[in-house]
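Example record

One chain of 268 residues, shown exactly as stored in the release files.
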Amino acid sequence: MTTRQAQHAQAFADLHKPGEPLLLPNAWDVASAAAIAAAGAKALATTSAGVAWSLGVPDGANLGAERAAAVIARIVAAVGVPVSADIEAGYADVAATVTAVLQAGAVGVNIEDRRDGSGLYAPAEQAARLAAARAAARAGGIPFWINARTDVFLGGTGRIDDALERSAAYAAAGADSLFVPGLVDPAGIAELAAGPLPVAVMVWPGAPSVAELTAAGAVRISLGSGIAQAAYGVAARAATEMLTSGTYDSVADGIAYGTMNAAVTPAP
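Predicted structure tokens for this chain:
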């Protein structure tokens, strides 16, 4: 691993602070990553959905480790902030996937407990997978952050006690934080934050504010596929407007051509 990657890994770990959470926008290609970094993000993460869509495949374990790592490598080379990789459930071999994205320059990963087909891994089974990921990360020699995602609130029981059981198992396996997409209730977040792992949450329009989630104890707040969905929404609206009314107002708020071109121009 490079000195730069080691420094980014430590900086990324240090950004997970109670009372001052890491605000982590999600990118899906070099241009989106450059725009997010230019906006002032201290770090960024990929969204597996956005990456998959940009490559012409549906989300849901269809991306694969090789393509996920290739996108990470391009993004890491283009931005000057730490980058974390969404590797879904780890694809065919979670340890090999962690190794691949680590070698591509990532300083952390999301690993979810939803099976590629349906349902969730049992807590002990997922803990074993996380332990394998931790062993692979340890070989990199940097403080690699494992964000253990549980889909208890998306495709499981929706029970806090089940999430706490998984938090304990995942902490023992070497996870650094518990990611709970689907949960934005401040009381529930506070209960989980009192457990064995710091809590990361995903937000969307209408979710509690950053201030409210901070007060509840979240140490990391991300947007998931939201930015990618919004960008593709602009594409659809602009096309519809042009093809129907013959006007172009939907693209009025785009980043200026020169600004975007400069954002993706490699440093000399």
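Notes: The mean pLDDT is 96.
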